Amino acid sequence: MIINYGDPDINLLTRKALPGAIKNDLNKNPAWASWRTLRHKQPPIEAWLQTHHGLLKTISKIETATAALMDVQPSELNRTIRFCNLLEGCQHLVLHLEQHQIVEEQIYFPKFVAIIPRLKAPIEMLDHDHIVLEQLMHDANIVLDKLATMKPKRADIARLHQITARLHRGLKTHIQHEEDIIMPDLLEIGIERLLID
User: Fold this and answer.
1) How many CA atoms within 13 Å lie on the side-chain side of 40?
2) How much is the pTM?
3) Count of CA atoms in the C-beta half-sphere (13 A) of 179
C-alpha cells in the first residue's frame, strides 16, 4: 500500500480514526485486541507509554496556560508569562518530543518494519505524522521567540494558543494510533527483539 498523506482520512490533522487500509496491516491476534487493559510489566514498554503520557500531560498544561493568558491585561502579560513558566514548558515539550521522535524514527520504526514487513504502510503514516508535529513545533518556536521580548502581544498569545491546540489534538491522535499500531505486535514479539536486533 502506498500512503497518500493528502487524504483527509490519513492526514494527522484531519483523520478521525485509524484508516481501514492501515487497520488491514495490523496484528489480527484477538489476544492483543484489549492490550490497553493489560498491565505492562516490561520496563521499556512502560517507559515508552509513560513518555507518551507525559507529553500529553505537558501539552495539555500549555494549552490551558495559553487560554488563560488571553484574559490577562496587556500590561501584565510579560510578568504572567514568566510566572506560569510558559516559555520553559514549551521548550521542555519541544525538546522531549523531538528526542522521542528521533529515537522512534531512527531505531524503533525501522526495526519494526524489518521484523514485521506488513507494518511498512502504518509506520510510513506515523513518520508523516512526525513531520506534521515537527512543523507545529517549529511554528510554536517562532511565536515563542516573539513572546520572549519585553512587550509580548496578545495576538502572539492567541497564535500560540491556536498552535498548541492543534499540536495537542494532533499529538493525542498520533500517540493513540501509534500505540494501537505497535503495541499488539510489540507484546507478541517481545521488547527484546527491538532492543537486541
Assistant:
1) 21
2) 0.92
3) 20
At 53, list the grid cell: 503520557
Which pLDDT tens digit goes with each residue over 114-138? 999 999 999 999 999 999 999 999 9
Kindly state the greatest CA–CA separation across the chain.
Answer: 59
- Tallying the residues shown for the chain, one arrives at 197
Cell of 3: 500512503
Pull the grid cell for residue 84. 506560569
Are the C-beta atoms of 150 and 77 separated by less than 8 Å? no
C-alpha cell read off for 12: 494527522
Tracing cell 515539550 back to the chain, one arrives at 93
- Report which of 130, 113, 114, 132 is spatially closest to residue 122, judged by C-alpha positions: 113
Chain centre distance of CA 83: 26
